[in-house]
Amino acid sequence: MTTAGDIMHHGAQWIPAHETLDRAAQLMRELNVGALPISDENERLCGILTDRDIVVGCVAMGHDPAEITAGQMAHGTPRWIEASADVGEVLQEMRGHQIRRLPVIENKRLVGMISEADLAEHLGEDQIAAFTESVYARTTPPGH
Predict the structure, then answer these.
(1) Residue 110, Cα to own-chain centre: how many angstroms?
(2) What secondary structure letter does DSSP report for 76?
(3) pTM of the full structure
(4) Is the dihedral of CA 30, 36, 38, 43 positive or negative?
(5) Which of 34, 65, 74, 133 is deepest in the core (most CB within 10 A)?
(6) CB count in 10 Å sphere of residue 33
(7) Cα–Cα distances in Å, from 2 out to 32, 33, 116, 131?
(8) Distance, CA of 65 to CA of 119 (rounded, Å)
(9) In what order do the strands lie in the sheet with 9-10?
(10) Which of the residue ranges 4-18, 79-93, 110-124 would you say has the lowest mean pLDDT?
(11) pLDDT tens-digit profile of 43-71?
């Protein structure tokens, strides 16, 4: 059985909720990633911050990324998966919530991240096609 732990990218790093978006952008550059899980003061997942969130939700709105924190950008219920979960559960979670990145947790701590690239590397063509179709499916009919 292939698990989330088998296909995840190891070495994922938190951005603490109190850190500013400019620091988050620097960390993304250093790690060569486009998303960072956001941790609360107890190192528990409280959201995910993407490079797009910084650009669209902060910079394009005329806000200063040195004054906005990662925690202020955390919205909704964060999704995650246990490292021991079967790859089918990973796909179900990502498809069901139409998400492209999924933090992997073990013993209530971040141990990795699964991205579309990880799926493409480890899954068969049929599984990738089904995932892609469901995540990128049009949510409204054309012309609406």
Answers:
(1) 12
(2) S
(3) 0.81
(4) negative
(5) 74
(6) 18
(7) 26, 24, 16, 17
(8) 32
(9) 9-10, 109-115, 101-106, 81-82
(10) 110-124
(11) 888 999 999 999 999 999 999 999 999 99
